[in-house]
Design brief:
Chain A is of the alpha/beta class and about 220 residues long. Chain A is built from eight helices and nine strands. Chain B has 17 helices and eight strands. Classes of the chains: A alpha/beta (about 220), B alpha/beta (about 450). At the A-B interface, helix 2 of A face helix 1 and helix 11 of B.
């Protein structure tokens, strides 16, 4: 998948300056930058949830199946975790909905009760958020600050899931402000500042770059 | 496409079932509003304040044509209709100027004497402000004068009949204040008979006979004068008959208003809040990145409104039917319920499209709910205004679904030949549905930011 000069304005405000970025199969790409840098906007555009004001996103053929985990969980608060998964599985056109739902409930270790999703803990909501993104068996997983509400065990579980996607030949793009994660799980890094892509390269290249000092 | 819309519709129905308090409020609130608006329309300003200025100093008891009128009793009848306040002319002018009273009823000087004279009609003066209540006061004053005339008419007829009786039977009487002594037709006939019998002049006997025949015919004619006078006074008599009429709350119009009002609030609010909630729950982006098209989300919310309109509208119609049946009142058109059901779906969808349009503008569920409520209320009130009386209000009202829904429901249920009205109003609703849905589609991308 490649973003070719994608930009996004919100009224008179610039959310993302024209940006070109490629995501390669089998890699984990980290997007870093301070709050408001344009990371979430770029991820939403890559996910197809937000139309760019200019530029375009191109994909290989056949287009990859995309799983998007937005920063704020996107789920129905009055439905239980299972009901949310069943709903999105139907919309994804999953062939065996009950089996897929059972598998994901186990994978992300979510409690299978009738509790409305809005009443789940922040960590469990984030796990449900991830499970919904995994329903379509994605080739490209887009994670927007996915570990913010997770405890260390849950973080490990999340990265295990992400590495499964990568091992299947897929790719993972994640936005983070956690530099430890960056060093531990990313192959490449892209730095956004004020809506502009200011650096793109491998982790060693990043560590040698002046941008590394900004976040040190 | 239908299955995706169906999945979302199922989700919304499930969510609504988990919010029974919200749903009950959304149904009961418009019904309470309908009841209140109905009561206000029926009873507000029922007794407008009217100044009563008695410049003539009417006596407590007024004698007209030998009949006594208790003036207080007559005024008491008026007080049932208006709040009549006895005031001096100066005070009445002051209060009329500052709006404390909406009209003055003035009894001019010489009123009682003209009434007693029974020759010249006395005059009551109504002085009313121009405004919302003036028409009502005029009608009530006309009713007062009508009632007074009816009471006086009886006295006038009785007085006239006394004169006729005096002419027939003869005797002592008074006319225009002068005492008179009349021989009377009966006695005149007797006298003419005596003349005819006693005279020896055949010419006089013939003339007396001729006159006696005239007197006899005049007597016969005057015998009918009572009925004739009453018939002339009341060419048309109105008779009130009691029957099993529908109570005010069960009239066809009220049913139609209650249905439209319930749908207006329920469908506009649910659709507005529903589409904005997709953004609030951060789901709209997830849905529209390939799972569901934005147009399908709009169609689903309109479908939800149509479904709710059908279910709750039919339930309300059945409640009305049950109430009528319990009251022993026939006439509820059960066979028209299928036609009503079609109207409810169309009305619910049109209200839903308007709600979705508002939700897209508001973007956030709480703002959308508030906006929907703020907008729905004046639209509904506009629809209550009579089209003939307030034309501009009707033009504005026609741009929204409420007035069309009312006419469609009323015609569906009660018109003997409903098809013309139903087709016209259904076309209006379908047109408004298309316009608001198109507006929502144009703006729905606002939800993605």
């Amino acid at each position: 998948m490649a973003a070719e000069g994608v930009a996004r304005r919100f009224g008179s405000q610039l959310g993302l300056a024209p940006t070109s970025l490629q995501v390669r199969a089998g890699e984990t790409l980290a997007l870093i930058g301070p709050n408001g840098a344009g990371k979430s906007t770029l991820l939403a555009i890559l996910a197809g949830a937000l139309a760019p004001s200019s530029g375009r996103v191109t994909t290989a053929e056949p287009p990859p199946r995309i799983g998007w985990v937005p920063q704020r969980p996107g789920l129905y608060g009055l439905l239980s975790a299972r009901e949310n998964l069943v709903l999105f599985a139907k919309l994804e056109g999953v062939a065996d909905v009950p089996a897929a739902v059972e598998k994901l409930l186990k994978l992300v270790a979510l409690p299978d009760d009738q509790k409305p999703a809005a009443e789940l803990s922040g960590g469990n909501q984030q796990r449900l958020n991830l499970a919904i993104a995994l329903l379509g068996g994605p080739d490209l997983l887009l994670l927007d600050e996915p570990t913010a509400a997770l405890d260390p065990t849950q973080r490990h579980a999340l990265w295990d899931v992400a590495s499964d996607v990568r091992e299947r030949g897929g790719a993972v793009v994640f936005a983070t402000q956690n530099l430890e994660e960056l060093a531990r799980v990313a192959d490449r890094v892209a730095v956004l500042l004020g809506g502009e892509l200011v650096f793109e390269g491998s982790i060693p290249e990043y560590e040698r770059s002046p941008e590394a000092d900004v976040f040190a | 496409m239908m299955s995706r819309i169906g999945v979302l519709l199922g989700k919304d129905v499930r969510v609504l079932r988990r919010s029974p308090f919200l749903l009950a409020s959304l149904v009961l609130y418009p019904l309470a509003i309908a009841l209140l608006v109905g009561l206000v329309a029926r009873f507000a300003n029922d007794r407008p304040r009217v100044a009563f200025v008695d410049l003539d100093g009417l006596p407590e008891v007024l004698s007209v044509g030998g009949q006594d009128f208790n003036v207080d009793n007559v005024l008491r009848q008026v007080r049932a209709e208006v709040d009549l306040i006895s005031l001096s002319q100066e005070e009445a002018d002051h209060r009329l100027a500052n709006g404390e009273v909406v009209a003055q009823i003035i009894v001019p000087r010489g009123f009682a004497s003209r009434l007693r004279g029974m020759v010249e009609s006395p005059t009551l003066i109504l002085r009313a402000t121009r405004g919302g209540l003036s028409g009502r006061v005029e009608r009530q004053t006309e009713a007062l004068v009508f009632n007074l005339n009816r009471l006086l008419q009886k006295s006038y007829i009785e007085a006239n009949l006394e004169y006729v009786d005096l002419i027939r039977k003869g005797g002592e009487g008074s006319f225009l204040g002068n005492d008179v002594s009349i021989v009377g037709l009966q006695r005149a006939g007797e006298i003419l008979g005596e003349i005819e019998r006693e005279t020896e002049d055949p010419e006089i006997a013939d003339k007396a006979n001729e006159l006696r025949n005239f007197v006899r015919e005049a007597l016969l004619a005057l015998d009918q004068s009572g009925a004739s006078l009453r018939a002339v006074a009341n060419p048309i008599e109105l008779r009130f008959e009691d029957e099993d009429r529908r109570a005010f709350l069960l009239t066809a119009q009220v049913q139609a208003y209650a249905l439209a009002l319930t749908l207006a609030f329920l469908c506009i609010l649910i659709a507005a809040a529903g589409i904005a909630a997709e953004r609030d729950e951060n789901v709209i982006g997830r849905l529209t990145r390939g799972l569901v098209r934005l147009g399908e989300v709009i169609a689903e919310k309109i479908g939800l409104a149509a479904l709710l309109g059908l279910v709750f509208g039919l339930a309300l119609a059945l409640v009305f039917s049950a109430a009528l049946a319990l009251g022993g009142i026939s006439g509820q058109p059960w066979d028209r319920l299928p036609l009503l059901a079609v109207g409810l779906v169309l009305g619910g969808a049109a209200f839903g499209a308007f709600g979705v349009f508002l939700g897209v503008l508001a973007r956030e569920a709480r703002t959308a709910s508030l906006l929907a409520l703020l907008v729905a209320l004046p639209i509904v009130l506009l629809g209550f205004l009579p089209e003939v009386s307030v034309a501009p209000a009707a033009w504005v009202s026609n741009a929204f679904p409420f007035a069309h829904a009312v006419r469609l429901f009323e015609s569906s249920l009660y018109d003997l030949s409903p098809w013309g009205t139903v087709a016209r109003e259904a076309a209006w609703l379908a047109g408004l549905l298309a316009v608001f849905a198109a507006g929502a589609r144009l703006g729905v991308r606002r939800l993605l930011t």
